[in-house]
Design a protein that fits this description.
2 copies of one chain form a homodimer.
Chain A: H1 13-21, E1 29-33, E2 46-47, E3 57-58, E4 62-65, E5 79-87, E6 101-105, E7 117-120, E8 124-130, E9 142-148, E10 158-159, E11 170-172, H2 180-188, E12 193-197, E13 201-207, E14 211-212, E15 225-226, H3 229-239, E16 243-250, H4 254-267, E17 270-274, H5 279-292, E18 293-298, E19 302-303, E20 309-313, E21 316-321, H6 325-343, E22 353-358, E23 362-363, E24 369-378, E25 384-388, H7 397-401, E26 404-408, E27 414-415, E28 420-425, E29 435-439, H8 443-449, E30 455-458, H9 462-470, E31 476-480, H10 482-488, E32 496-510, H11 521-526, E33 531-534, H12 539-554, H13 559-564, E34 572-573, H14 578-584, E35 590-594, H15 595-600, E36 604-618, H16 625-633
Parallel strand pairs in A: 5-6, 13-16, 13-17, 14-15, 17-21, 19-24, 22-25, 29-30, 29-31, 33-34, 33-35
Antiparallel strand pairs in A: 1-12, 2-11, 3-10, 4-6, 4-7, 5-9, 8-9, 18-20, 20-21, 22-28, 23-27, 24-25, 24-26, 26-28, 31-36, 32-35, 32-36
Helix pairs in contact in A: 3-6, 4-5
Pfam family, one (chains A, B): MoeA_C
Protein name (chains A, B): Molybdopterin biosynthesis protein
Pathway (chains A, B): Cofactor biosynthesis; molybdopterin biosynthesis
């Protein structure tokens, strides 16, 4: 091993937090257009530059009056005023009230300076009169007269200039988060450009020769994988209020990598790299940090996330995240995102937590804070269960199959099944899936789930589903092979209830035209063909093994004898299409699979039998709305 | 009144919700780049198109071996294997292992097909040998040999191709919210374009001749006001997951308005207008809805928000919001935003609520759901008090001075002081201000508050502050005039504690050069000058009245006699700068104000006295961190 890194003195999580807090990420202030200010934070106080309203404004529809003219008016003894004009919103009043005059006025209109109150229309009755004051009967010039049935004080139903906010008054303080309501007030003040705290510019640099951008083709044989961290971390930076700047993926060319990191440091407030798994890439990062900055911390007592590096490069804050996506995002979310939020002056997120019961025992490791990714499921009583989700730090599905993490203290060895735990949700909006299905990878089930709201489907195989349901984790097991036969046999298991079942043809998938002339299981056993199998958890594999048992019995041999003749029988693949895809790619001659898959991939199919799939719910989950939804959409064959 | 609208049959809130639910806002689906997918919702299922990983991948640094070669190896009885090469991440392995061979391998590298397990480096020791197998001593060609101290089973520390997710498996279901974690999985799958639910296009149209965009100048005399609703509602639409399309402000030209609304209906999924207060504008909207669509509902039993109109225009959903910003945003937030969220398939926001005690009695009105805007303050025991914030529906400061609303049932007449209430926060991130200061509008206090986190300052005047503190609402009162003298006199009021105090010169603000030669209060009383006063709540006004009393005593007259000679004494303005600004604008000859204001506005100043300002906290709030912060930043004069 050329340069295997040891981490003898791991920093505690608190030390990591303090180290990050000590870094300078200050983005400074900037001015943005009002329409771009939503979600930003004011960099400085905004005082009112104008009175709002800018004039004495009618607060009701009615009549603008001289208040003194109404004194003594009542329902039984109204006063009459002459209506000498109208003022609507947006009009310049060109009337001057003499004693006994009034003006019809609309809400929002300018109250003439010669008036000092508004009587609302509900307290008035207007009529027309002849020019001489009598009731209007014939034609001729009409005067307008209004009966006022209430006395009003000066200022009634008038919003005085500046009554909302007066010029010179403090409107919004520095640090205010701009929401639609603040945008409303800023609009009222006529502010169309807003001084806000800048968003920290965060360089996102992924290193590693093996990384290929999504959308480009992979060379699997050369160990290519898609670059996961760049896009996920850039999105996380945006969530935290930062401005991600993605630097083109750098390979393991040392000079190029050093140049990219130095450029990023000169252009951004924080540089994030996510480590190449290759030692040479880390060497370059170390060298750049040592030569042009300071290494503040290397190695954290957190699992996952140990190989985290914190320092500065040319005075710019630097964090080196682990390469594995689960580790990188875990460290980012727990430690780096809050620091970016603080630099952007965003209010800290309230960590959303859920009290749950651990569904299965999970070991931990002394001396490190363990963050166990867990999925959540509600049991029949509405209590929340947490079950560990961990396909290894390298697995990206762990990211989406988990709802949050259970933090386990460094001095705790394990969490036992039944232990109460506090789950830190990935975000406050996370909800447990409405129904959790574990079991066989089946295309019909996958399609049916499209019509169920918020399902989770862990296609780990029929045997996994059987165990998960029995352990009280899965709401429902997707069973295939003999598991399905048992479930459908109604053998008196009153803990389970079949929600739906259907049939599917299983057999051998071969290239289009069946070039090797495969006509059954005998051919597979006897001919010199390469084969791709499914894993032992799957129901279709159980069907194959049963068929091999039967063939062995016919031949008076053992299954092992037959299996020895199948090149690739031990090659277990995980997905229902995996063997067929290997056939399509010309990697093997024959694959185990379903007719539907062969048709979808334009391959030929040699049927060996009919499999049944049954979805069996835990009896005590039947009242869950998600389980009822699932039952509604599942095929119901025999 | 030309066309005053009556609302005889008000729809209930539930009917409004159902009517909105019945509108078609479906934006359809679209495809966006991966980097733009954050926060969007998947429109369809995404299945894995490739195996992840695409090859058997080393999960640890170490040696790739044929597992069978390690059988029997132990700490005490290691086996030795020949190291025939190295494979790093991104390398294509070009080695073939024979029995007894192994290959150095890095995490993430391709496991050669001739190996089937990885031994981690911690369980090995490598040494070099001479080509003939002896220990390396001299120079010459060296062979590498590694001692393996543990037995491994096939598959150990190997992540099999497709073990994370296999091609053909369901990766993410329709309706999944795309967060950084989903972006991680999509990246791993190589997906760079994502099918997502569209964002409903929401037309935002503000109507009214009197509306002027922020940034443009207002003609106050003509009743101009800035357009508040367009920007605030557009921001609210974005918050809800919609795509706001702002249509240029339309005046009251009927043809133009009708054309704009029809264009908006043809281009968007939902048209929102916020009503002009002018009757003619509403007439146009009614006419367009009647002629080209359907009026579904007009008038809602909600306060504020009664004049809400729901219908369709050319088949497009239409909602007419009230014109007043508080009303418009209240109806938008409570009813329209959830509908937009649903159309965008966003998960509904969890309504954040806070239990509080009503601080003061508030009347309601039977028959309508009342949404009382309230501010929040924590008392000395950490309990939350809610106090009504309502400067009228026309006041935009109500938007920012409130933290949420208290819904009051239609059959309830009032909420009493001391009643427990549930406050619906405007958003889950809303927190009560850390310190609430009510009282005198003072520039020194405003500046000091810039250094306090999350303050709220209601500059309603010294008298308001005194009452609010006494009523147990304000944490601290900003007192001036005689209120400040009393507070500083240490007269044994043990309910209050002065946090800081300072002096300010008060007097008459006159134009630069003092053209009227104003030299004191006598001139104001005796000369023919127009004057702008402050309101009776302010401490500076109390100083003026005291000085007038003293002058009256000198002259053996009453204050009323003197006041009669001051043209504009009754003109009360609200802000500390308001009179001075009227002087600067040439509206009046003399204004009541502070020396600091005169200097800031380049005006002259005639000092009449020295005012004191004292900030007095409620004694039982002294331990609040915000109060301690305030004390720290306040000037402490005598």
């Amino acid at each position: 091993m050329s340069d295997h890194k040891e981490f003898r003195d791991l920093a505690t999580p608190d030390v990591l937090r303090e180290t990050l807090a000590g870094l300078d990420l200050d983005p400074g202030a900037e001015t943005v257009a009002l329409d771009d200010a939503r979600g930003r934070v004011l960099a400085e106080r905004v005082d009112a530059g104008i009175d709002v309203p800018g004039f004495d404004r009618a607060a009701m529809d009615g009549y603008a009056v001289r208040a003194a003219d109404t004194f003594g008016a009542s329902e039984t003894d109204p006063v009459e005023l002459d209506v000498i004009g109208e003022v609507h919103a947006g009009d310049r009043p060109d009337v001057a009230l003499e004693p006994g005059d009034c003006v019809e006025i609309s809400t929002g209109a300018v109250v003439p300076t010669t008036a000092d109150a508004v009587v609302m229309v509900e307290d008035t009755s207007e009529r027309e009169t002849d020019a001489d004051g009598g009731d209007a009967a014939g034609s001729g010039e009409r005067d307008r007269v209004v009966e006022i049935r209430t006395a009003v004080a000066p200022g009634t139903h008038v919003m005085a200039a500046g009554a909302d906010i007066a010029a010179g008054q403090r409107a919004l303080g520095p640090g205010t988060l701009v929401t639609p309501r603040e945008i409303g007030l800023l609009s009222a003040l006529g502010v169309d450009a807003v001084p806000v705290r800048g968003r920290p510019r965060v360089a996102v640099v992924s290193t590693g020769d093996e990384l290929v951008p999504p959308g480009d083709d992979l060379d699997h044989g050369a160990g290519d994988i898609h670059d996961v961290n760049t896009h996920a971390i850039a999105a996380g930076v945006r969530d935290a209020g930062g401005d991600p700047v993605v630097y083109e993926h750098v390979g393991d060319d040392e000079a190029e990598m050093a140049a990219t990191i130095e450029t990023a440091a000169s252009e951004c407030d924080l540089v994030l790299t996510s480590g190449s798994t290759s030692a040479s890439a880390m060497d370059v990062v170390y060298r750049v940090v040592e030569e042009r900055g300071e290494r503040l911390l290397h190695g954290v007592a957190v699992k996952p996330g140990k190989p985290t590096l914190v320092g500065t490069i040319d005075g710019t804050a630097y964090v080196g995240l682990p390469g594995y996506p689960v580790s990188a995002l875990s460290i980012f979310r727990t430690f780096v995102a809050p620091r970016i939020r603080a630099a952007a002056a965003r209010p800290p997120t309230r960590t959303a937590t859920v009290d749950a019961t651990m569904a299965t025992r999970e070991r931990s490791e002394e001396g490190r804070l363990r963050l166990i990714p867990v999925g959540l499921v509600e049991d029949g009583d509405g209590a929340t269960l947490a079950y560990p989700v961990d396909k290894g730090s390298g697995a990206t599905t762990t990211l989406t199959a988990a709802d949050g993490v259970v933090p386990v203290d460094p001095d705790t060895n394990y969490v036992d099944a039944g232990d109460p735990v506090t789950v830190e949700l990935f975000s406050p909006s996370v909800r447990p899936p409405r129904v959790l299905v574990v079991g066989e990878d089946d295309p019909s089930l996958s399609r049916a789930l499209d019509d169920v709201a918020s399902p989770r489907y862990l296609a780990a195989g029929s045997a996994s589903g059987r165990r998960s349901r029995r352990d009280g984790v899965a709401d429902a097991a997707a069973l295939a092979g003999p598991d399905a036969d048992d479930a459908l046999a109604d053998d008196g298991d009153d803990t389970a209830s079949v929600l739906g079942s259907w049939r599917r043809d299983w057999g051998l998938v071969v290239p289009a035209g069946n070039p090797d002339g495969v006509d059954g299981l005998d051919a597979l056993v006897d001919a010199d063909l390469s084969f791709a199998n499914r894993d032992a958890e799957s129901g279709v594999r159980a069907r194959l093994d049963d068929a091999l048992d039967a063939l062995a019995a016919d031949r008076d041999a053992s299954r092992e004898d037959l299996v020895d003749g199948i090149s690739g029988y031990a090659l277990e693949t995980r997905g229902h299409e995996s063997p067929a895809r290997r056939v399509a790619d010309g990697v093997v001659d024959v694959g185990l699979g379903l007719r539907e898959t062969a048709v979808a991939l334009d391959l030929d199919f040699v049927e060996l039998g009919v499999d049944r799939v049954a979805v069996a719910a835990n009896a005590d989950r039947l009242d869950k709305p998600g389980v009822r939804d699932l039952e509604r959409v599942l095929p119901d064959g025999d």
